[in-house]
Every structure is written in structure tokens, then in C-alpha cells.
Amino acid sequence: MSDTQNKRAYGDGDASFQTAGGEAGIKTLVDAFYHAMATLPQAQHIRQMHDDDLTESNDKLFRFLCGWLGGPKLYREKYGSIAIPRAHAHLDIGLEERDAWLACMAEALKTQDYPEDFKAYLMEALMFPADRCRNR
What is the C-alpha separation between 133 and 11, in angstroms, rounded? Predict the structure, then answer.
């Protein structure tokens, strides 16, 4: 990473995408996220909301995060535009489910070699899309 990228604020251009390790780093994060969902007791009810085969869910989250973090718009390329509330409207999502999802992400971030301030930034920033998934 160049000195210019190091000095950019997270959320500025592709600074977050680069800090996350690009596509490879985000793929690793998403894999750790779904591992956390499968193993954290407080996440079992949200794991049950997913298909047994997590291939598509994993791909969608990976592609969403790439674009959301300022990288290539991979979700749009494959699935079209995303409206987070509409994409989750078929699920019963309240505060408990939102918080379980965020707990999975927090657990996944523990396994990543990201700067601590970036981990904190991500958790704060992810509250917005996580909250937009709520429908009750």
C-alpha cells in the first residue's frame, strides 16, 4: 500500500477496500463470518434463516462488501443493484437478529490482520446496513 493510501481516511475512495486486503482479504473475512455464524450460540437462529449450502450467501456478502468498501461493484455485476431492505424482506429480522449478525462480524474481524481502528470503523459502519435489514 502506498503512503498516499495509508493517509486516506477509511471510506475515502477504495481506502477501506485496500485496508481489508482487496478481494482476497474480503473473501477471508466473509469465510470467517460464516464460520462464526455456524459456531456462535447466539447466531444459531440466524444460521437457520440461511440455506444449508451457504455458497450463494457467501458470494453475495463477499460481492456486496467489495463494492460497499469502495472496491469493484461485483454484486451489481452478478446480481444487479441491491436494496438491502427488499433483499431481506422475506426474513423476520429484528434487533436480536441484527445483533447476532453483528456479533458474527465482530468474531470474524478478530481473525483478520486488520488495524484495530479499521476493525472499529467497520463495526460502526456496518451498523447502518445491518439496521436496514430490520423489518420489525
Answer: 21
Domain annotation covers residue 87:
yes
Q: Measure the N-to-C terminal CA separation of the chain; round to a whole number of Å.
A: 42
Query: For residue 115, how far is the Cα from the chain centroid?
Result: 17
Please report which confidence band the pLDDT of residue 6 belongs to, taking 50, 70 and 90 as the band edges: low
What is the tens place of the pLDDT at every residue in 92-106?
999 999 999 999 999
Can you list the alpha helix ranges (DSSP code H) found in the chain? Answer: 3-7, 15-19, 22-39, 44-47, 55-68, 74-79, 84-87, 95-110, 116-132
CATH of the domain at 103: 1.10.490.10
Distance CA 82, CA 64 (A): 8
102, 127 in Cβ contact below 8 A?
A: yes
